[in-house]
Design goal:
Elements: H1 2-20, E1 26-29, E2 36-42, H2 47-50, H3 55-72, E3 77-82, H4 85-107, E4 111-112, H5 118-128, E5 134-139, E6 146-151
Parallel strand pairs: 2-3
Antiparallel strand pairs: 1-2, 4-6, 5-6
Helix pairs in contact: 1-3, 4-5
Protein backbone atom coordinates (compact mmCIF):
# COMPACT_ATOMS: atom_id res chain seq x y z
CA UNK A 1 0.00 0.00 0.00
CA UNK A 2 2.84 2.37 0.91
CA UNK A 3 4.57 1.73 -2.43
CA UNK A 4 1.34 2.31 -4.35
CA UNK A 5 1.07 5.78 -2.77
CA UNK A 6 4.64 6.54 -3.81
CA UNK A 7 4.09 5.39 -7.41
CA UNK A 8 0.89 7.46 -7.57
CA UNK A 9 2.83 10.52 -6.35
CA UNK A 10 5.55 9.86 -8.91
CA UNK A 11 2.93 9.63 -11.66
CA UNK A 12 1.40 12.96 -10.62
CA UNK A 13 4.82 14.67 -10.40
CA UNK A 14 5.77 13.30 -13.82
CA UNK A 15 2.52 14.47 -15.42
CA UNK A 16 2.98 17.93 -13.89
CA UNK A 17 6.64 18.04 -14.96
CA UNK A 18 5.77 17.47 -18.62
CA UNK A 19 2.66 19.63 -18.49
CA UNK A 20 4.79 22.58 -17.31
CA UNK A 21 7.12 21.91 -20.23
CA UNK A 22 4.09 22.08 -22.59
CA UNK A 23 4.04 18.37 -23.44
CA UNK A 24 0.80 16.42 -23.50
CA UNK A 25 1.89 12.96 -22.30
CA UNK A 26 0.39 9.72 -21.06
CA UNK A 27 2.33 8.44 -18.05
CA UNK A 28 2.67 4.88 -16.76
CA UNK A 29 4.64 4.17 -13.59
CA UNK A 30 5.61 0.59 -12.80
CA UNK A 31 6.09 -0.66 -9.26
CA UNK A 32 9.45 0.07 -7.67
CA UNK A 33 11.94 -2.81 -7.95
CA UNK A 34 15.41 -2.66 -6.37
CA UNK A 35 15.10 1.12 -5.81
CA UNK A 36 14.34 1.65 -9.51
CA UNK A 37 11.14 3.22 -10.71
CA UNK A 38 10.36 2.72 -14.39
CA UNK A 39 8.37 5.50 -15.98
CA UNK A 40 6.99 5.21 -19.50
CA UNK A 41 5.54 8.17 -21.31
CA UNK A 42 3.82 8.37 -24.66
CA UNK A 43 3.35 11.46 -26.75
CA UNK A 44 2.56 12.31 -30.35
CA UNK A 45 6.00 13.68 -31.32
CA UNK A 46 8.56 11.86 -29.17
CA UNK A 47 11.69 12.78 -31.14
CA UNK A 48 11.85 16.20 -29.48
CA UNK A 49 12.32 14.53 -26.09
CA UNK A 50 14.43 11.61 -27.32
CA UNK A 51 17.00 13.56 -29.32
CA UNK A 52 19.90 12.18 -31.32
CA UNK A 53 20.80 8.67 -30.10
CA UNK A 54 18.66 9.22 -27.00
CA UNK A 55 20.86 12.00 -25.59
CA UNK A 56 17.98 14.35 -24.82
CA UNK A 57 16.10 11.45 -23.21
CA UNK A 58 19.08 10.92 -20.91
CA UNK A 59 19.08 14.58 -19.87
CA UNK A 60 15.32 14.62 -19.33
CA UNK A 61 15.61 11.45 -17.24
CA UNK A 62 18.34 13.08 -15.12
CA UNK A 63 16.29 16.22 -14.45
CA UNK A 64 13.09 14.26 -13.76
CA UNK A 65 15.02 12.03 -11.38
CA UNK A 66 16.24 15.06 -9.38
CA UNK A 67 12.69 16.46 -9.18
CA UNK A 68 11.20 13.14 -8.05
CA UNK A 69 13.90 12.52 -5.44
CA UNK A 70 13.32 15.96 -3.97
CA UNK A 71 9.52 15.65 -4.00
CA UNK A 72 9.27 12.22 -2.39
CA UNK A 73 12.47 12.39 -0.31
CA UNK A 74 13.50 8.87 -1.24
CA UNK A 75 16.64 7.71 -3.06
CA UNK A 76 15.40 6.11 -6.28
CA UNK A 77 16.85 5.52 -9.71
CA UNK A 78 14.44 6.78 -12.35
CA UNK A 79 14.40 4.86 -15.63
CA UNK A 80 12.45 6.95 -18.15
CA UNK A 81 11.33 5.54 -21.50
CA UNK A 82 9.60 7.56 -24.18
CA UNK A 83 7.33 5.75 -26.67
CA UNK A 84 9.26 2.53 -25.95
CA UNK A 85 12.47 4.00 -27.41
CA UNK A 86 14.72 2.31 -24.83
CA UNK A 87 12.92 -1.02 -25.05
CA UNK A 88 13.28 -1.05 -28.84
CA UNK A 89 16.93 0.04 -28.60
CA UNK A 90 17.74 -2.74 -26.13
CA UNK A 91 16.08 -5.33 -28.36
CA UNK A 92 17.98 -4.02 -31.40
CA UNK A 93 21.33 -4.05 -29.57
CA UNK A 94 20.79 -7.60 -28.32
CA UNK A 95 20.01 -8.83 -31.82
CA UNK A 96 23.01 -6.97 -33.22
CA UNK A 97 25.24 -8.49 -30.53
CA UNK A 98 24.07 -12.01 -31.43
CA UNK A 99 24.65 -11.33 -35.12
CA UNK A 100 28.18 -10.01 -34.52
CA UNK A 101 28.98 -12.96 -32.23
CA UNK A 102 27.71 -15.45 -34.80
CA UNK A 103 29.87 -13.81 -37.50
CA UNK A 104 32.95 -13.89 -35.25
CA UNK A 105 32.34 -17.53 -34.30
CA UNK A 106 31.91 -18.46 -37.96
CA UNK A 107 34.84 -16.50 -39.45
CA UNK A 108 37.25 -16.47 -36.51
CA UNK A 109 37.84 -12.76 -37.17
CA UNK A 110 37.26 -10.07 -34.53
CA UNK A 111 34.52 -7.54 -35.19
CA UNK A 112 34.12 -4.00 -33.79
CA UNK A 113 30.94 -2.13 -32.96
CA UNK A 114 30.60 1.58 -33.59
CA UNK A 115 31.43 3.80 -30.59
CA UNK A 116 28.68 3.51 -27.97
CA UNK A 117 27.68 4.91 -24.61
CA UNK A 118 28.47 2.93 -21.47
CA UNK A 119 24.79 2.01 -21.19
CA UNK A 120 24.78 0.51 -24.70
CA UNK A 121 28.11 -1.30 -24.20
CA UNK A 122 26.78 -2.87 -21.02
CA UNK A 123 23.80 -4.30 -22.91
CA UNK A 124 26.16 -5.90 -25.46
CA UNK A 125 28.50 -7.32 -22.79
CA UNK A 126 25.60 -8.79 -20.81
CA UNK A 127 23.98 -10.30 -23.89
CA UNK A 128 27.17 -12.14 -24.88
CA UNK A 129 28.61 -12.97 -21.45
CA UNK A 130 27.33 -16.56 -21.42
CA UNK A 131 28.62 -17.46 -24.87
CA UNK A 132 31.62 -19.74 -24.82
CA UNK A 133 32.65 -19.19 -28.43
CA UNK A 134 33.31 -15.42 -28.23
CA UNK A 135 34.68 -12.80 -25.83
CA UNK A 136 33.85 -9.10 -25.59
CA UNK A 137 36.05 -6.24 -24.50
CA UNK A 138 35.76 -2.48 -24.56
CA UNK A 139 38.44 -0.55 -26.39
CA UNK A 140 39.29 3.12 -26.80
CA UNK A 141 38.47 6.20 -24.80
CA UNK A 142 35.12 7.95 -24.39
CA UNK A 143 33.41 9.21 -26.48
CA UNK A 144 34.93 6.80 -29.02
CA UNK A 145 34.85 3.74 -26.74
CA UNK A 146 33.51 0.64 -28.47
CA UNK A 147 33.17 -3.10 -28.06
CA UNK A 148 35.31 -5.62 -29.85
CA UNK A 149 33.97 -9.17 -30.19
CA UNK A 150 36.75 -11.79 -30.50
CA UNK A 151 36.85 -15.55 -30.87
CA UNK A 152 37.26 -17.34 -27.52
Amino acid sequence: MFEKRITNKIKKFTEEFFKRASFDVQVTVEEIVDSTVRISINLSEPQVLIGENGKTLGHVQHILSKVIKKKIDKDLFVDLDINDYKAKKISYLKELAKSYADDVALTGQPKEFRPMSGYERRIIHLELQDRTDVLTESAGQDPDRKIVVKPA
